[in-house]
Amino acid sequence: MIWHVLTPEYPPESGGVAHYTSLLGQTLSDPANEVHVWCPRTGGLAPETAGVTVHHDLGAVTPADLVRTGAALDRFPTPRHLLVQWVPHGYGYRSMNLPFCFWVWARSVLHGDHVEIMAHEAFLSFGEGTWRQDAAALVHRLMTVMLLLATRRVWVSDPVIEKLWKPYTLGRAVTFGWLPVPSNVPVTATPAAIAALRRQYLHDGQILVGHFGTFNRQIAPFLDRILPVFLRTCSNAALLLIGPSGDTYCATLLRKYPEFAGRVHTTGYLELEQLSSHLSACDLMIQPYPDGVTTRRGTIMAALAHGLPIVTTTGGHTQDFWSTCGAVTLAPEEDTQTFVEAARNLIADEAARTRMGACARSLYEQRFDIRHTVAALRRTAGANASRPASTRLPQTF
Question: How many structural domains compose the chain?
Fold first, then answer.
């Protein structure tokens, strides 16, 4: 089978969807499955992977680029199987690339391609910003309608997306299914590398507590509230901020709280092998999220894959299984005291950390490993061979 994976980003870009698509292509390709990745133009050459061919025909995802990509796709035998990696802000035009969504619909209805959508995100919400954001939120919904008219199967990274998208099927029979988003960080750490990092960061019997993330404007306010209380309460903990923006965040934190100098460390940007070593060196991870922990969080997946105990937050998007999986300790997203107390208890209880770490690794292997994603795609590929019925767009489009 020939798979055509359309993605808004691909290595050497470092975004989450880029790494996800790269890992998916590597795992999906084998002697019986050929993978072609179609992506925008990047600043460098894509890595060479056996069985995966990368095409940069999408360019800047303009109408002319889409015509060129379509002509290139038409040279492949039918039925063509298109798997579209969807994030509304991924394809340019300030997240409002209606021509791209129309083109996906045309590939299905006019060219007979079998289209599946992998929705990593849904759309912007109304009433959370300026009128411009509300306008973009409206366009996102129009884009969603077009994509749903192009397919009868949607994969989601988070079950919440299914609830948000179903009203926009316009009564059509669209099958939704959850696909796990695996860790983008292979577990490659060696005992020697881990030991060297622990000697570098730890002194006088300290515990190494890590946070892995982007330190963006959604996460930073939670860290601003939690970290000072955590560092005061857990005096025997050293904090490791893992991520390319950790240096900037750390500088701001220490300007406000200079008393924590020497206990807070940062990594800056790390290659994947170094990233695995730094994660593995941690005794505990603290991972607060504004909407709560969910299956679409790549940073939580990396911690699970590395068998790390985790303190995280519950929120409106948190799935029920997190409270019973044994791999994480949960605190309400606004309850700083409960969050810090949970971290303090785990710092004091090595046996509990060991149990949680084992549960984390087991949970990842059983539910989130990339092999589950590939198995689901292959399992449904034959059943989905029939194309969606030809559907005309409403005249309002």
Answer: 2
HSE-up (13 A, CA, CB side) for residue 51: 17
Nearest Cα to Cα of residue 157 among 130, 122, 189, 200: 122
Residue 300 lies in a domain: yes
The label of the residue with tokens 């002194």 reads 203
CA triple 372-189-193, angle to 5 deg: 175
What does the radius of gyration of the chain's CA atoms come to, in whole angstroms? 22
On whether the CB atoms of residues 153 and 384 are closer than 8 A, the answer is: yes
CATH, residue 234: 3.40.50.2000
Instruction: Tell whether 291 is covered by a domain.
Output: yes
Query: For residue 351, what pLDDT band results from cuts at 50, 70 and 90?
Result: very high
Average pLDDT, the chain: 91
Same-domain pairing of 25 and 132: yes
Q: Cα–Cα–Cα angle for 10, 13, 14, nearest 5°?
A: 105
Q: Position of tokens 């993605």? A: 7
* Structural domain for 276, as ranges: 191-368
Whether residues 126 and 221 share a domain: the answer is no
Which tens digits make up the pLDDT trace of 253-279? Answer: 999 999 999 999 999 889 889 999 999
* 230 shares its domain with 167: no
Q: Do 202 and 121 reside in the same domain of the chain?
A: no
pLDDT tens readout for residues 5-40: 999 999 988 788 998 999 999 999 988 899 999 999
Same domain, 26 and 164: yes
CA-CA distances (angstroms) from residue 311 to 120, 223, 323? 24, 13, 12
Sheet containing 207-212: which strands, arranged edge to edge? 264-266, 237-242, 207-212, 284-287, 310-314, 328-332
pLDDT tens-digit series, residues 170-207: 999 999 999 988 998 999 999 999 999 999 999 988 99
**95 in any annotated domain:** yes
What confidence score (pLDDT) does residue 390 get? 36
User: Does 239 reside within a domain?
Assistant: yes
